[in-house]
Amino acid sequence: MRRRLAALSSAALLVLLAGCTVAPGEEFPDALPDAAFQARVQDKVTAIGVSDGDLWPSCWSDDDALYSANGDGAGFGYDASDIVVNRITGTPGADDLAGTALAFGDAVGQVWSGEDFTRKPTGMLCVDGVIYLAVQDLRRDFNEAPAATIARSDDHGATWTWDTGAPMFDDHVFTTVFFTDFGKDATHAPDGYAYAYGLDGNWRDSFDDSVPDPTELFLARVPTDSVQDRSTWEFYAGAPGDAEASWTPDIAQKQPVLVDDRVVHPSEGASGDAGQTVGAQNLSVLSQGGVTYLPAQDRYLYTSWTELTFEFYESPTPWGPWTLFLSEDFGPYPWTDARFGGYGTSIPSKFVSEDGLSMWVQSNVCPCAPAGMSSYWFGLRLLELQPVN
């Protein structure tokens, strides 16, 4: 059993938060080709809470709290589980960031695919005072995601309901689901729909040759009053960045809004790169992350990752065209205490500045990280943008 993290006092947390700004006079790196932004991100996770777990997809509800679900840990509580839903109040940079665990385990979701699988949270949506949580089956070796469904809470995370008869998505199709974050209670949603992104096969590159690595990001929309009704879902059927979006109810006809088949840290021969752990090579770049809308910039950000890099994209519409604006390489293992990456990247809209140029990225590093580097909690790091004129 993993050891629980020691509690931090509010004062200690404030000190950590205060130290995370970029050094005065530090310049932005050059913009990547065709990107709308230059970007710089903190290397080290400097904001932590008294929490335990990973992934932490989130949404900002009508009661002004952030709701977030973690995998494999106790969250902001004391009972470890494969899934926990939490309520988080306060903001980074103030002496008030705190969390409470609300529900976990069988009260949140079920496993569809057998004893070799466990539950993982992949996305959350807050709209009209209701909270939705996408939960996938993930094989215990993390190399297959065959099924997923969406649970609903009408009492701000205390209790959850879902169709217990069958998953909403199966056969490894659209089984890693995360919703666009349109701000507090989806206040900036454009047209009465919730927009959800999905990956096929797995939540990130698979070390199992029978499961393809995700190289395509897909998009769906569903009326906000029927999120759990699979028959009302429509899938994007056009080309990335079309002037007008086209949709189909047939999931077999869906088309990707982003295709990126890059491989980072390619292996060098059969033995791979020296110094890297098993699997930290030949890494595909599309993974479970988050999409956040920045109303002040009228742009969408998709935060993806590999085991050794951050891969962040921006777009003027939910369906593209998506352009890579940040590829931050933290290098092969071993990392150091001053510089390390993370996974499960997302940007809570509650933690975005009014001008949309400063925000906090949530990401994690598991306790098995090399050189003892771990951020296995609700952890934040600062991301700053500068528009390219």
Regions with pLDDT < 50 over 5+ consecutive residues?
Answer: 1-25, 270-278
Mean pLDDT: 89
**What helical percentage do the residues reach?**
under 10%
Number of helices: 1
- What spatial form do the alpha-carbon principal axes imply? globular
CATH superfamily: Glycosyl hydrolase domain, family 43
Beta-strand percentage?
A: 35-45%
Largest sheet: 10 strands, mixed
Overall SS class? mainly beta
- Secondary-structure element order, N to C: HEEEEEEEEEEEEEEEEEEEEEEEEE
> How many β-strand stretches?
25
Would you tell me which CATH topology applies? Answer: Tachylectin-2, Chain A
Give the CA-CA distance, first to last residue: 52 Å
CATH class group: Mainly Beta
Number of domains: 1
SSE blueprint and pairings:
Blueprint: H1 10-18, E1 37-41, E2 47-48, E3 52-54, E4 58-60, E5 66-75, E6 81-89, E7 98-104, E8 117-127, E9 130-139, E10 148-153, E11 176-181, E12 193-199, E13 216-223, E14 234-236, E15 247-248, E16 258-259, E17 263-264, E18 283-284, E19 290-294, E20 299-305, E21 309-315, E22 323-329, E23 343-346, E24 358-364, E25 379-387
Parallel strand pairs: 11-19
Antiparallel strand pairs: 1-25, 2-25, 3-5, 4-5, 5-6, 6-7, 8-9, 9-10, 11-12, 12-13, 13-14, 13-16, 14-15, 17-18, 19-20, 20-21, 21-22, 23-24, 24-25
Describe the structure.
- With about 400 residues, this protein is an all-beta fold.
- The chain has one domain: Glycosyl hydrolase domain, family 43 (Tachylectin-2, Chain A, 5 Propeller).
- Helix content is about 0%, strand content about 35%.
- It contains one helix and 25 strands.
- The strands form five sheets. Strands 11, 12, 13, 14, 15, 16, 19, 20, 21 and 22 form a ten-stranded mixed sheet that branches.
- The model is unreliable at about 1-25 and about 270-280 (pLDDT under 50).
